[in-house]
Write a structure and sequence with these properties.
Elements (H helix, E strand, L loop, with lengths): L1 H41 L11 H10 L14 E11 L2 H14 L3 E9 L5 E11 L3 H8 L4 E11 L1 H27 L3 H33 E10 L2 H9 L1 H57 L6 H6 L1
Parallel strand pairs: 1-5
Antiparallel strand pairs: 1-4, 2-3, 3-5
Helix pairs in contact: 2-5, 5-6
């Protein structure tokens, strides 16, 4: 009997031990499933596209599961910008060539400005281009060959650290929001609810700001900006003037002759105007004096009558 009782006790103990192990394994499996679900919920929505640019690759590396193996390598995030100054005899054709080049590289023209002369010909054009960052170097070199190159410059800024810092802060902010939401669900008093909602609102605003920075970095690192200025070649107006040399010479001579005539007329009028007052004075004073002198001369010219005795003797 004692042996039978000992056997029964041993069997019951083994059953209880197996049940405890099974329940512990089930709990651990359940916990693992919940952790995986939480990890999937924490992953950024934009990471679903995956691999579109360096920013998304870095986000994938930072949000990857450490137990799944070695995370993907971090890629450098570069913001590239360029400026190209060109000259062309035909600005409109150069603009068309730039548009064709942008289409070939899968970019776009986001801003366009042109200036025309009185005849409607395009004399200057300014274009702002967005080129895929991976094709920036090739596209920039081709843009320099569209027309006569005056100057060009380009800059590249490594923002990988900013991208990593921004991504980490977004992850931390989202986890904080989830914890606060759990506390809000468990809150009972009005005071606790108000305090928790205040924290929730503030941290949501911080998260929105971080996500806007992330969107800006994604845009700048995925598409490079190039500004292209095209001007008409300065020699073009000079060639047009050479064709009109003969007409210009005749008109120039006519203009100079007219100016000389006007100058002579102005000088003559000035002299006449200066002498006119003196002429009036001479006319007023000299006129009567001249008449008096003339009368005196006529009187002296009349012969005196002969004496009467001389006439009779004769």
């Amino acid at each position: 009997m004692r042996h039978s009782r000992a056997l029964v006790v041993a069997v019951l103990s083994a059953v209880l031990l197996l049940s405890a192990c099974s329940s512990g394994g089930g709990d651990s499996d359940s916990g693992g499933g919940n952790a995986a679900a939480d990890g999937e919920a924490a992953a950024p929505a934009e990471d679903a596209a995956g691999g579109r640019n360096a920013l998304e690759a870095n986000e994938a590396a930072l949000t990857s599961d450490p137990d799944a193996g070695e995370p993907p390598a971090m890629e450098r995030a570069i913001i590239s910008t360029g400026d190209v100054q060109l000259e062309s005899d035909d600005v409109e054709k150069a603009v068309f060539d730039v548009q064709a080049l942008v289409d070939r590289y899968g970019g776009e023209i986001t801003d366009r400005e042109t200036n025309t002369d009185d005849e409607g010909d395009v004399r200057m054009a300014r274009l702002v281009l967005r080129i895929p960052a991976t094709k920036f170097s090739d596209a920039f070199g081709d843009l320099e060959e569209v027309a006569d190159l005056k100057s060009s410059s380009s800059t590249s800024e490594d923002v990988t650290t900013k991208v990593i810092d921004n991504t980490v802060r977004i992850r931390a902010q989202r986890r904080s929001l989830r914890r606060i939401e759990i506390l809000l669900d468990q809150a009972v008093s009005i005071r606790d609810i108000v305090a928790i909602e205040s924290q929730l609102t503030r941290r949501q605003a911080d998260l929105d700001s971080l996500e806007q920075q992330q969107a800006f970095l994604r845009d700048q690192t995925s598409m490079s900006t190039v500004t292209v200025n095209i001007q008409l070649t300065p020699d073009e107006p000079a060639k047009k003037n050479e064709k009109d040399d003969h007409a210009a010479g005749f008109l120039s001579g006519l203009e100079n002759g007219t100016k000389a005539l006007v100058f002579f007329a102005v000088g003559l009028a000035t002299v006449i105007g200066a002498l006119l007052p003196w002429a009036l004075v001479l006319l007023v004073v000299g006129g009567p004096l001249w008449l008096l002198i003339r009368r005196l001369r006529r009187r002296d010219a009349v012969p005196a009558p002969a004496p009467a005795g001389d006439v009779d003797g004769g």
